Amino acid sequence: MYVFENIDLTSTKKLMIRISWLFTMICGLMYLVNLVVPFLQSFDTRFGIATYSFGFGHPAQFALTAIVFSVLRIFFSLKDSEHMPYIYLILNFGLVFVAGRSTSIGFYLCLLILAIIFPYVKRIPISFVVVLGIVFLWLSWGRIMSQFMGDPDEARGLLLRTSIKIAQDNFPFGAGLGMFGSNAARVHYSPYFSKYNLDGVWGLTKENPHFATDSYWAMIIGELGFLGVICMLILFGLVIAGISMHLKNEKSFTKVIVLLPFIYALLTSPVDTVMVSKSIIIVMFAILYMCLYIKKTNEKRGWDIILR
Q: PANTHER family recorded for this chain (predicted)?
């Protein structure tokens, strides 16, 4: 963060808003045209409709981008005391729904609820946070259960369940780096896939290990063991605490919005690919952008007060 702290990002607000609208309008137009003249490649079928990634490698990456743009628009509204962009948020909800990721849809609905109440309350009640958590779990429960208790031939769920066995068999440190769930374990096909009978599962075979890196927590649990999981959770806690400390003089709503992309990545990490894909860069830069925007905005307001 300190590398970029001298960059003034307050002048980029209009540009970011235009880019966000451009993203939403282009994707929305592509979907409408596709209804008449099919040209988009369907990823799968969810909720009775075909899902699309709109040129992204995976619908989860597309959904993340739509969520980050929505978070940025809410952030601008809160920081600069402007009206919430409800029309934009609803349009982006349509895009997230078309992506078909139940966890993303659940998270976005919670985001919409937050955007509605932000202008009318001074702080978020704990009871409201609990309600949001229940809504998210309810909408994501099917996806969560399919990972932990679902199809025995589903690669991501198998990776996660097998990683727990590996951590138990290699307590407390796990199998070691490059042995399970990581790119190194895929490129140099790990013997652990054969040892735990995963080498016959489609997407996890030696010839086609396409899904071998599909679960972030499978990699952490399998390679670093339960001790590594504890260390990672502490690290994530320190990251959240560090960002909160950097924003200690900001309103609680602003802190929540800045942290939302990271919270989304954490919440969906057991069931989606955000943490193990290049999309995590979007999360990092979104948080960095908002922190720097806050810093420069506060500096300018301070100078305005002095000059008066």
A: LIPOPOLYSACCHARIDE BIOSYNTHESIS PROTEIN PA4999-RELATED (PTHR37422:SF13), TEICHURONIC ACID BIOSYNTHESIS PROTEIN TUAE (PTHR37422)
Angle at 180 between CA 177 and CA 285, to 5 degrees: 70
In the three-class reduction of DSSP (H, G, I as helix; E, B as strand; rest coil), residue 197 is classed as: coil
Most confident range (mean pLDDT) of 90-99, 121-130, 299-308 is 90-99
**Residue position matching structure tokens 């952030």:** 75
Tell me what pLDDT residue 217 has: 85
- Residue range 81-94: average pLDDT? 92
CA torsion sign for 294, 300, 303, 304 is negative
Q: What values do phi and psi take at 113, rounded to 5?
A: -60, -40
CB 222 within 8 A of CB 174: yes
Question: In Å, how far are 67, 153, 183, 295 from 219, measured between CA atoms?
Answer: 26, 18, 9, 36
User: Which amino acid makes up residue 166?
Assistant: I
CA distance 286 to 64: 11
Residue type, 296: K
What is the rounded CA–CA span in Å between residue 35 and residue 207?
37
Q: What pLDDT sits at residue 92?
A: 96
Backbone angles phi, psi at 167, to 5 degrees: -65, -35
pTM check: above 0.85: no
Q: Where are the alpha helices (DSSP H) in the chain?
A: 13-36, 59-79, 86-99, 102-117, 126-148, 155-169, 183-187, 191-195, 216-246, 252-268, 280-307
Please determine, for residue 7, whether its predicted confidence score (pLDDT) is greater than 70. Answer: no
Residue 306 has pLDDT above 50, yes or no: no
DSSP state of 37: S
Percent of the chain predicted with pLDDT > 70? 87
Type of residue at 113: I
- CA pair distance 202, 199, nearest whole angstrom: 8
Amino acid at 52: Y
Of 130 and 105, more confident: 105
Tokens of 18: 């235009």
